[in-house]
Structure prediction request, 528 residues.
Amino acid sequence: MPTFLHISDTHISGDPAYHPSWIPPTAPHPNRAVEALLEAIQALPLDFDFILHTGDLCADPLAADYHCARDLLLRFPAPIFLLPGNHDSADMMQDILHDGRHLFVLRDACLPLAGCQLLTIDSNGEGDDHAPTLPDAQIAWLTERLDAIDDGPVLVALHHPLVKTGIPYLDEDNRVQNGERVHQILMRHREKIAAVFYGHIHQAASTAKDGLAYICCPSSWSNLAAYPGSREAVPDLNTAGGFSLVMIDGGTAFVRRCSLPRLAK
Amino acid sequence: MTTFLHISDTHISGGAPDDPHWQADAHGHPNAGVAALIQAVNRLPFAFDFILHTGDVCNDPDEANYQRARELLIQLPGPVYLLPGNHDSSDLMRRCLHDGSKLRLLQDDHVQLGGLHLLTLDSGDEDSHQARLCDAQIDFLEAQLRSIGAEPTIVAMHHMPVASGVEYFDDKMRPQIGDRVHDVLKRHSGKIAGVFFGHVHLTAATLRDGILYACCPSTHYNNFAYPGMPERITDPLAPGGFNLVMIGDHGVFLRRFHLPMSV
Prediction:
């Protein structure tokens, strides 16, 4: 059975003092959280096929951050498929990380993997980096790729959320603005899509809509709260970093949330 | 929009905090998790329509446990819909908990909540600790679903109806008749917003044939889940918690909430 780990929003930094103002004072350095993630993954008593990272790999688009990321990621025990987030430079990821053996940087791509088709979208489209709009040409590419895939299961992955949650700050300020259009395209192929995987909003959340599941993986570092009516992102101080275990059986996706140890600053 | 909290597997005990049984238990006293839940839920900065408890309310079918459960559960904002689990006695739940207003026992039931239908199946059986789910209940589910037009419906039961891929849960902790529950739901998938269950003590979800099956964590202890897992193994890093569920035009949104870790 295809089995993989979904990780996201590691925000690796080459600066040992990195601690942005939007992160609670009690949060550890993001690289320590990646070390905790590595330890948890090394201790897992199961075989898995690959690791999917849905973006915000590094804190800033700086070569030093990506060199630091490379040192950390090469220690992980499986190939890692890396998507760019709004904090990333896809070009730097390609230059510094992609080696085609252990680290694979994917933008708009479709590849067979462990009996599935991994279809990735670089969601850093146009406009606001937290709430981008995907260009028409990219949507045309996606449509074409989905039409061309005869057999699923297809795993769709991107950094930003596509569909609404019902929570204002997520829907209005942190979502692909033309995500509903993408949803309509995905829906036409839902028989072959196992699930859609994303990150960006730093929490264990999911949306099911029209028979499609959209699964968000928490950050390994610092996570966010969301409530009905929330108009801004505030830290979720009860939740340590985490990741997801995903098992695909034909068109059925099973996702289990895994927690990392709580780290003090 | 309908908003509710999904809680499960509280395993409440009438035993005192220093009860030797619980002092010897690696997971501690289960009521500590319930106290953390009550505190967290009462501090939530938003309103919700109801709380759904998918069973194993008490650890053993014993009257003192249900008396204590009543004292605890009435501290939650209601209404609280309670399903029996395999550790429960539905008779004691009816006698000690059900008051028809704040705390409501649901077995094989159909409740209309505004524009949302809640269909519940009683899969508990305190005699054997095995799931009890029979053909008549599958027929009940089918008949109720037929009677509902196109209105959104959620289904709840204690046990996991569909296979997860984790063989131990699928073979040892799941009623095999659950596949027939899925067959019925599949025929009505257009109106099924989600299926909510507990029992396996996990934060996990399965999407099968377009139907979302969501398990919420226990407040007491939680398990690992992985392919080839040989037995039930608890994950010391998985804290107690609950799920927020929002159902509306956007679809179904689920978000996990952790309770503070007691160290």
